[in-house]
Amino acid sequence: MKRLPPAGLLSAARVCRGWRETAKRIWRAAEELKLRVPINVTVGFVASMLQKCPGIVRLSLRMESDFDSTMLACVAFSCPNLEYMEISTFDSASIRINGDELGRFVADKKGLKTLKMEGCSNLGGFVLCSYSLSTLWLSDLHSLSKMVFNCPQLREISLEFSCQENDTTDLTTMIEGLGRSCPRLQNIHIASERLSHSAVLALTAAQLRGLRMLSLVLGSEITDASVAAISSSYPNLELLDLSGSGVSDSGISMICNVFPDTLTRLLLALCPNVTSSGIQFATFQLPLLEIMDCGMTICDPNMQNPAADEDNCKLQKTSGSNVHLINQKLIIKHSRLRKLSFWGCTGLDALYLNCPRLIDLNLNSCTNLHPGRLLLQCPTLENVHASGCQDMLIGAIQSQVRDASFAAMENHSPSKRLPDGSKRVRVPHLLSEESPEPEKKRRRIERQHCNVLLG
Q: Which residues fall within 8 angstroms of residue 406, CB to CB, at 6 or more apart?
């Protein structure tokens, strides 16, 4: 019965008295609850569920109806030991609480360590004071009059602003205060069109010594000068995400000079000033790189990119400013890359990859990639995303990953060493004097089939 979801456990409690008592014990012992709140459900339903679990520590609510101050008060009253709260919204649901109500909730929950909330467009402004909070995620923010953080234990923060032109949030002032009051920050993610070079300077002036992951997304005014400031202040970054910025190949060169011994993830999607030369240089100069996203960087300026319809409104604005030449070529040889993305790169004509550890390759909407100029020497590939590609290119991808799969299986034939010990030769099972490997052992070494995903 412990494995049943909440709805199943409620149904099981109706079977008999014994099952009802067992269900009560399970509710009382529960420390984590994941609950979907359907449309038009009253706060009484949520209250009744939470009262069954007085020891709840982790709470996740999937809101299909609005989350208001009454619901927040219900959570505060019913979950005195709460450490983790996540609220996600779906369809037309929204978070209808203001910044003062959120601030009081955070201040009252002395043990709250993680708070994640979507749909925060009605906050208006907030002051968060907590000596326990270590992770904070807020999305859909808009026109905040104030953002004050007094969270000395905060290590990770994610602030995503809605894509609206009339946003009046002062990010520079917010970042200055964040640096003063949250000295232990390690991971920072901010997505906003109002990100600028002055905001970057405010961040670098904070001197956050523990910073390891920095993501500043959709800031078209972030330039190579911003990269220089980041590089001089935070030389130990492991992740750098400047997607949607004005960074060019010169900025990539600075990144490669400063972070060759630390950087494992580099994301430069929607950067119209980056060329194939800069991408190729980065893969050559960053030996520890494991994840790289260059989506919609190499674009044909005369072509409407279908990938732009799948993401937020910023994509179309950024892609329209790309003026680079088409028919660009990429040759990448890297021993550690595991995930590589070129989604929407309509200007990419030829691609040659030699990445023995690559498991995921995204080529969605690479409409100009020539089937005869594609070479995938990636024996561990598990997924290739090819939605929106030409049929001939999809056929070439399927053929190459199938051939790689057969080659990997053939390489596991038993071997014999020549009498003088100079060379090892492959011997088919049927010709080997020794008995073939057991079926279970052979099954373990067979390579998993690579999936070509078209949807």
A: none
Using CA atoms of 307, 309, 315, 319 in order, give the dihedral in degrees to the nearest 10. Answer: 60
Q: Which residues contact 289 (CB under 8 A, 6 or more apart)?
A: 263, 264, 265, 266, 282, 283, 334, 336, 337
Please report, in tens digits, the pLDDT of each residue of the chain (455 residues total): 878 777 777 788 888 888 888 888 887 878 888 888 888 777 887 888 888 888 889 999 999 888 989 999 999 998 889 999 999 998 888 889 999 999 999 999 999 999 999 989 889 999 999 999 999 999 999 989 889 999 999 999 999 998 877 888 899 999 998 888 999 999 999 999 999 999 999 999 988 989 999 999 999 999 999 999 999 999 999 999 999 999 999 999 999 999 999 999 999 999 999 999 999 999 999 999 999 999 999 887 766 554 444 444 444 444 444 444 568 899 999 999 999 999 999 999 999 999 999 999 999 999 999 999 999 999 999 999 999 999 999 999 999 988 666 555 554 445 555 555 444 554 444 444 444 555 544 444 455 678 998 87
Pairing state between β 424-426 and 415-417: antiparallel
Q: Where are the beta strands (DSSP E) in 199-327?
A: 213-217, 239-241, 265-267, 291-293
Q: Which amino acid makes up residue 267?
A: L
CB 379 within 8 A of CB 404: yes
Contacts of 438 (CB under 8 A, 6+ apart): none
In single-letter form, the type of residue at position 94 comes to S
The C-alpha atoms of residue 218 and residue 195 are separated, in whole angstroms, by: 7
The domain locations on the chain are 326-408
Model pTM?
0.83
**Mapping DSSP to helix (H, G, I), strand (E, B) and coil, where does residue 292 land?**
strand
Take residue 416 and report the two structure tokens written for it.
């014999």
Compute the half-sphere exposure of residue 148: CA atoms within 13 Å on the CB side of its CA: 10
DSSP 436: P
Taking the C-alpha atoms of residue 172 and residue 189, their distance in angstroms, rounded to an integer, is: 14
DSSP for 74-134?
HHHHH-TT--EEEEEE-TT--EE--HHHHHHHHHH-TT--EEEES--TT---EEEE-SS--
